[in-house]
Amino acid sequence: MGNIVDKKVNFDGKQEIVDELIYGGLEGLKEFSKTEKGEAGFTKEDFHKIKNKIYGKYKIKKPFQSIEIIERYNELIADGTLEENLFFKKILRKRGVRSLSGVTVISLLTKFWGCPGKCIYCPTFDNLPKSYIPNEPAVMRAQLNKFDPIMQIHNRLRALEVTGHKIEKNDVRIIGGTWSFYPKEYQETFIKEIYDAFNTYDEMKKFIEKTDLSSDKFASFKIKQGYKAKKSKTLEEAKKLNENSRLRVIGIAIETRPDWITPEEIKRLRSYGVTRVEIGYQTTIDEINKLNKRGHGNKESIGATKLLKDAGFKVVAHMMPNLLGSNPELDKKSLKEVFDNPDFRPDELKIYPMMVTDKSELTKVWKKGGFKAYDDKTLINLTVELEKMIPEYVRLNRTYRDIPATEILEGSTVANLRQIVEDQIKAEGIKLIDIRHREIKDGTNNPKKSILNTYKYKASLGEEYFLTFEDKNDRTIFSLLRLRLPKENAEILRVLPELKNCAIIREVHTFGDQLGIKEKGSTFGQHIGLGKRLMEESERIAKQAGFKKMAVIAGVGVRGYYKKRGYSLIGEYMIKNI
Q1: Would you kindly state where each structural domain of the chain is located, as residue ranges?
Q2: Taking a C-beta distance cutoff of 8 angstroms, is the pair 578, 547 a contact?
Q3: Is the pLDDT of residue 27 over 60?
Q4: Most Cβ neighbours (<10 Å): which of 46, 201, 358, 536?
């Protein structure tokens, strides 16, 4: 329970009532701490009842916004009046699911620089990266911030922070088409300014003009005149600063094409701090990719997947059911191949059913009657079958593209497709086992009572170990680690010689409520030693297999974590003799 410091607070009007709401909530939490469930038993509904009592007392008809209460609570913590209580912070927070993965995901859109592909399904709008349309949420945010990475990040962080989310651990996703095709100077500047944005956020906050938070709009908060973000002179300087910044970059993801992945490209991506790469397989049927003018086939997808894994990257594959020339049976065959064939086997998956939008070559084909999308029933039944195929070592991130229904000329407009699909699967009595379905949520699972599970499989001419700490009853995952024992990796060793004789940890991730960098662990999952124990087990496995060293593809912001465990920075990897 966060203690109330003996310090008089004297405000009047609205702020005084907000204070009463906060103190009322903390008292309610204190009462629950005496029960069998403890503080964890205090829910949003319990706090809602307390708020309604106070609103009735002051005859307030319009309740205050959550962000007003959160902002005031943060002020009381900052000036020493209150000590932070993580349980109460959870109750206050809006959209709590955003923090349950243990990190904050920040998506950035790049400027338009063209695309080497000629895929018939991609819309091409002026001044936008190929495949994106003007009124997608991510596009609108980027346009509002002039595609500037610092402005995009600062606005997103501000929106998350004032709604009660922790923002110390950040996973950055760069979207906008084929990253590898963009000018190298633009790439390096964009990446440097990502680090600059997190390094300067706290300084920027001092220049924010006080605004009325009740509007709940954060897209364009005002900054006082005269402020200019301090930019590092070089990328290396920006990265070095981020190692000890309050706000860390724990990972960066980019999107590119399989036929643009080369050993040299991989070396450059590592110099940026990239840890995850998204590539479009679209289908494993070469004839269909050719019909849709994809420009590559399985050979390139398989080659890119192996190179990326051998360098330690997490691989996210994109698949597209309902491509021109396909049908539900071929779509099922295609995804089955992705997991049956060890040459594929990505770590994460996104499924994007075909949609016809304006400004694409497919639009012309559709208008002439040459293409018809699956009806909703067919798509739902197909997606049910696809989701059942996902193995336990894969995270299914998406099953639907976030495009407004008004922009879809042909294709499903069922925005809650995933929910409908998973309700149907549940009704069949089937429990999905992919990572997303097993991540710890707000349940009663106790990570301190978890068991170690090891899943071994062959992938891309190497051996993969998927290690988890999970609940022995319902298989809820608290923490996971991906270990690769590479074979035949001469292409990667040519550009990254530091990986010689190394097994590679490709991911360490502990789920649950995100804790600050230096916060102590609790019953939420993070900072109780699960990651450390997984690393010790992976080192044991690698040593037993004859490897002399362990390498970790660590994001810049988590290098310090590995240094404490005996690892040293060699090249762009954290490496340790085992």
Answers
A1: 14-92, 97-256, 271-436, 447-577
A2: yes
A3: yes
A4: 201
User: For strand 573-577 and strand 568-570, is the pairing parallel, antiparallel, or unpaired?
Assistant: antiparallel
Spatial separation of the C-alpha atoms in residues 116 and 130, rounded to whole Å: 10
Express each pLDDT in 170-225 by its tens digit: 999 999 889 999 999 999 999 999 999 999 999 998 887 655 444 444 445 667 76
Closest residue by Cα to residue 464 from 310, 575, 578? 310
The answer to whether residues 346 and 315 touch, using CB atoms and an 8 Å cutoff, is yes
250 three-state secondary structure: strand
Strand order in the sheet with 395-398: 104-109, 169-175, 248-256, 276-282, 314-319, 348-351, 395-398
pLDDT in tens, 447-491: 778 999 999 999 999 999 999 999 998 999 999 999 999 999 999
Secondary element (H or E) of residue 95: none
CATH architecture assigned to 271-436: 2-Layer Sandwich (3.30)
Q: How far apart are the first and last CA of the chain?
A: 42
Sign of CA dihedral 443, 253, 108, 156: positive
Chain centre distance of CA 518: 21
What is the b/e burial string over 539-575, where b = at least 16 CB atoms within 10 angstroms of the residue's CB?
bebbeeeebebbbbbbbbbbbebbeeeebeeeebbbb
264 Cβ contact list (under 8 Å, min separation 6): 495
**At 424, is the secondary structure helix, strand, or coil?**
helix
Cβ(298)–Cβ(279) below 8 Å: no
What number of other Cβ atoms are within 10 A of residue 35's Cβ? 10
For residue 31, give Cα distances in angstroms to 40, 51, 170, 355: 11, 16, 35, 53
Q: Specify the pTM.
A: 0.87
The dihedral sign for the CA sequence 352, 358, 364, 369: positive
Nearest Cα residue to 54 out of 80, 27, 21, 86:
21
What is the CA angle 408-414-415, rounded to 5? 90
Strand partners, 253: 173, 276
Write the DSSP symbol of residue 142. Answer: H
Output the CATH code of domain 447-577: 3.40.630.30
